[in-house]
Amino acid sequence: MGRMQLDFVATRRHFSVFGLLLLTAGLACLLLASWRMSQTQQVQQQLEGQLWQLQAPPASPETDTEATALVAADRLARQFRRPWTMLFQRLEQINVPGVRLGQILPQAGDKASVQLGGEASDAESLYEYLRALRRQGGVTDVYLLQQHWDAESEALRFVVQARWDAGQESVGAP
């Protein structure tokens, strides 16, 4: 007896060209739709960003105050980055009898200027100290700002302003 076949639906084992074309067209449409959707989302995000910028409040005076404070902080940081030990060593090298340097005050600003305060036994010693300070390398624009005789300590008190150029190369000020 022969083999009995109960499956009355004939199945084909090969693919039809029409089915493959339909599958390819469907995949192409899916890719096109997803690409268009991503483009639309990108444009939407750009427009939302522009809207946010337009709705932002205008710059307030507080922002200007903050900017001024940042500039001042940067200036102060540049002062601290200067090699102050070089200046201290140069000032210690100046030895004029009768003159004692009591304070060194750095001045805020882009120029490395300092105020030197001290006392001298007499005017001639003070003027000799000023001449020695002017001769010192790296110290320029030396000016006597103030001097007065202190009868209590029997000394001539003075304040000198000078500009110090030695540290400018190593500071890297913008």
Describe the structure concisely for a colleague:
This is PilN domain-containing protein. The chain is 50% helix and 22% strand.
CATH architecture of the domain at 77-171: 2-Layer Sandwich
Mean pLDDT: 82
Please report the total strand number as a whole number.
4
**CATH classification class of the domain at 77-171:** Alpha Beta
What is the tally of helical segments? 5
Q: Strand percentage, roughly?
A: 15-25%
Distance between the termini: 104 Å
Low-confidence stretches: 167-174
Physical arrangement of strands within the biggest beta sheet: 1-2-4-3
Approximate shape: rod-shaped
* Estimated structural class: alpha+beta
Helical percentage: 40-55%
Order of helices and strands: HHHEEHEEH
Largest sheet: 4 strands, antiparallel
Estimated radius of gyration: 42 Å
| CATH fold-level label of the domain at 77-171 | Alpha-Beta Plaits
Protein name: PilN domain-containing protein
